[in-house]
Design brief:
3-stranded mixed β-sheet; 8 helices; about 15% strand
Amino acid sequence: METLECQPLYLDIREFYEGLNMKVDQQIPLLLVERQALNEAMEGEKRGHHHLPETRGLCMSEEQIVSTVSRRPRFGPGFSIIELVTEPFRLTRQCEVTAILILFGLPRLLTGSILAHEMMHAWLRLKGYRGLSPEIEEGICQVLAHMWLDSEIMSGSGSNIASSSSSSSGPSKKGARSQFERKLGDFFKHQIESDSSPAYGDGFRSRQRGCAQIWSRSTLDHIRFTGSFPL
């Protein structure tokens, strides 16, 4: 996926957040970038907890110029990239978040789960959540990524025939998932569940145990004012 191709997925995930009553009002640029550009952007960031060496997404707060993938690459023998078109994109700071960067070339479901994770970072910053520990912040972000994968797998598990009723939700935009897609989604979920890192893995598992309460206003207020999850 190139940056332009990824925009419909971005809109889907924004709608996913709205469905959780967690609308992200700010129009945050989403850019797909190469590994080098992602690494350079990470070096320019003054905040954040990065899952090195496997960082595949970044919620940015600083003004930078990043190189974004603007056109699908051409492949040569052995699937080697022989032409990859990039262009500079200047990020300006108008709020706490300047852009979300995602590593180029990943499958749609993985790209979406990373984007759902980074969107939670953006939501927390825009809503004024400060000083959260890595376990709290990354754990919640991983829960959102896991929830989005669940929603994608479940939404496509049935018929892809849109309802003919005139419901306010309108026809479904998602067709039935293939067995391969469902297995791929389950694999990405398992990666989140079995992550061994203290912040991402332990954080996810501790947040998952309280998942039903995470989205209540009292729970979010508790996290904001205490920096910890309710016991």
